[in-house]
Sequence to fold (266 residues):
Amino acid sequence: MSSDVIKPTSARIPSDVRITAGTFPRIDLDRCALLLDIDGTLLDFAPTPRAVTVPDGLVATLEGLRERTSGALALVSGRSLDDIDWMFAPARFPSVGGHGAEMRLSVDGEAVATRAPPLNAELKRRLAAIAAMHDGILLEDKGYSLALHFRRAPQAGAAIHDAVSTIRADFPDPPIEVLPGKFVCEIKQSGFTKATGVRELMTHAPFRDRRPVFLGDDVTDETVFAIMPDYDGLSFSVGRRAQGVAGEFSGPSQVRDWLASLLAAQ
Fold:
């Protein structure tokens, strides 16, 4: 990969390009929309979701890029909007939260639900009981989904997924979806994903008519990787190789360095 300005293409290519500081991709902030996953992309993982830290300077970088793109910077996360705001407080950003379940289009805008009815109460009760299997399992109830985090008990992952599969079979209507992630198993109703959230986001100003550039690290981000060619956009994976992306960042610290370099170059 050269350091020239990347021209988005509709072709999907395998990720065989590892990005280095000498080959940071350059993009036109006047024409692009920056869409950024949070955990594992902007921020390093911590033992629990609430233990993550926002490094010094990141908020200022994001705010500068949001201003430079005329507002076309959004966070795209499995976290709820309330959780995203807590992490970056007092700053606020346009965001797609809850794997596409909710959205805020501007800093001052109201949060709106997209396609996210609450989970069945009995289903949630049975899923929540899985957390009793190990004291290292952390339960997170988002209303429209329920997440079982096992960063402190990685050995429990297989048992958690087996238990979820057993319970899931008893609740075929409406259909539910299990989202595998890094040390988390999240259960939600089908019909909304990060990709559906991004598609909705891209119909609104200031994102509309811009070329999206999306960065993500996890399996749930692959739905967004897959739709970038529809917008003549670009995607980059973080910490792992993925199909259909333009390159791979080694980790969140390199992503943060790249974002800072984008702002400094404009």
Q: What stands out?
A: The longest strand covers residues 176-181. The domain at 21-114+192-265 is CATH 3.40.50.1000 (Rossmann fold).
